[in-house]
Design a protein that fits this description.
heterodimer; A: mainly beta; 11 strands; B: mainly beta; five-stranded antiparallel sheet
Chain lengths: 113, 112
């Protein structure tokens, strides 16, 4: 299955600032997915990132708050902008390997103070 | 809209017990179902993937079954160990879609 390198693994940020999370996949993939997991909750899809086009955002998530880049078929970034304590969550990227299922990055644990 | 439910929400057992985690989903038109393990504050590790045409998958002490018509899957863990302590998530990929729908997970604690 695919190997995804995600960084940073954790960060503590001041409110009002932005954090960019990076994911690197060891092989080319068409779509990459970004999820959020709020404390004590399950995973919620933020957006789907395709190379060469704008990301598709789920209801409740907007590009101004969570801009995504997908410059090539192995790399994507998610930025959490103008952070507030409510953004404190684990953020995860993932890819779908079809017959092999989904693979997830190791997650970014974000705390906003 | 697909909904995934996991029961129980939490489970505490002594080491060595065999245990069953349950997952149910509302729409049987699924492509596959995947079980994940998540350690606190970490990412997800895939445990087992069951395609819609399959009935079960096994990996070591883990066995997952799928009954698509009734909308149910179970994860069986044999001879549990303290290292099995984690949250177990069930996720469904619907036919015709690329994304996963997750349950809320079962938090498992295995005591020595």
């Amino acid at each position: 299955s695919a190997v995804i390198s995600q960084k940073p693994s954790r960060d503590i940020c001041q409110r009002g600032t932005s954090l960019t999370i990076q994911c690197q996949v060891d092989s080319q993939v068409t779509m990459m997915f970004w999820y959020r997991q709020q404390p004590g909750q399950s995973l919620t899809l933020i957006a789907t990132a395709n190379q060469g086009s704008e990301a598709t955002y789920e209801s409740g998530f907007v590009i101004d708050k969570f801009p995504i880049s997908r410059p090539n078929l192995t790399f994507s970034t998610l930025t959490v902008s103008n952070m507030s304590p409510e953004d404190s969550s684990i953020y995860l990227c993932s890819v779908d390997r079809d017959a092999h299922g989904y693979t997830f990055g190791s997650g970014t644990r974000l705390t906003v103070v | 809209k697909q909904e995934v439910t996991q029961i129980p929400a939490a489970l505490s057992v002594p080491e060595g017990e065999n245990l069953v985690l349950n997952c149910s989903f509302t729409d049987s038109a699924i492509y596959n179902l995947q079980w994940f393990r998540q350690d606190p504050g970490k990412g997800l590790t895939s445990l087992l993937l069951i395609q819609s045409s399959q009935r079960e998958q096994t990996s070591g002490r883990l066995n997952a079954s799928l009954d698509k018509s009734s909308g149910r899957s179970t994860l069986y863990i044999a001879a549990s160990q303290p290292g099995d302590s984690a949250t177990y998530l069930c996720a469904v990929k619907d036919s015709g879609y690329s994304t996963l729908t997750f349950g809320k997970g079962t938090m498992l604690l295995v005591s020595p």
